[in-house]
Design brief:
Blueprint: H1 9-17, H2 28-51, H3 57-103, H4 105-118, H5 123-134, H6 137-148, H7 159-183, H8 187-213, H9 217-246
Length: about 250
């Protein structure tokens, strides 16, 4: 991935805390958990809805596969478009800051003084900071980008990478929801097993999430299971309402 400047932020976080989760790339776990959770919940909710209307297992499987494919594509393109828009915005802001350093150096130096003034540095200390920062253009750009406009270059993601990670995570989440329908003929049994598998995966997902959020593993697991259970139940009852309406 091409970036205009390289940020030392990730190296500092990793060196200070000794964990990759503390780097800015650790935030990608948000996209993974979101996509897995979405795959689990939307698939089991959809299957619950169609299975109360269609007894034939093959029809339920076909509808489920269509829903999973559509969901994965939607997740991919949604993540790709949103990440690309964010990437363009960040790079435009960095490029603008680079132009201002070249064309308006005194204005940018005054902004350095203002930043250090807000941090409590006196006039002499501000001038020392201005001299040390502005005598190197790359350092100057890094400082202004991070301190003035609040952008770390490590936040600039590859749209294709995020799109594929999100879509792949969605498919991982959808797998346990539809798996029982390939194994057993009775759709009622399939739905029960699907609900059990999804509940288990939601619980495990909550435990996995706790490793990053540092929330107690049981609290995180129960919270994820509860929210996922509510969403799945909503999908099931909507399916029952639709079945009653179209009879």
């Amino acid at each position: 991935m091409k970036q205009l400047i390289r940020s030392p932020l990730e190296e500092r976080l990793k060196n200070w805390h000794g964990e990759d989760w503390h780097t800015t790339k650790g935030r990608i776990i948000r996209d993974i958990i979101y996509a897995i959770d979405t795959g689990l919940i939307t698939t089991v909710s959809f299957l619950a809805g169609v299975s109360v209307s269609w007894v034939e297992r093959n029809k339920v499987i076909l509808a489920g596969l269509i829903q999973i494919t559509a969901g994965a594509l939607a997740i991919f393109f949604g993540s790709y478009i949103s990440t690309k828009a964010q990437k363009h915005f960040f790079e435009d802001q960095i490029a603008r800051e680079k132009r201002e350093i070249e064309e308006l150096p005194e204005k940018e130096k005054q902004e350095i003084r203002d930043i250090f003034s807000e941090l409590g540095f006196n006039r002499e200390e501000q001038e020392i900071a201005v001299k040390n920062i502005s005598n190197n253009k790359e350092r100057w750009l890094k400082f202004m980008v991070q301190e003035e406009i609040g952008i770390s270059p490590g936040l600039i993601d590859n749209p294709f990478e995020i799109g594929f990670i999100s879509a792949g995570s969605f498919l991982i989440g959808a797998f346990p929801a539809i798996l029982p329908f390939f194994l057993f003929e009775d759709t009622k049994i399939d739905l029960i097993l699907s609900a059990i598998l999804v509940s288990f995966f939601l619980f495990v997902l909550g435990i996995f999430k706790s490793r990053i959020t540092k929330i107690h593993w049981l609290k995180s697991a129960l919270e994820t299971l509860l929210i996922g259970g509510i969403s799945c139940s909503a999908g099931f009852f909507l399916g029952r309402i639709a079945e009653t309406y179209f009879k």
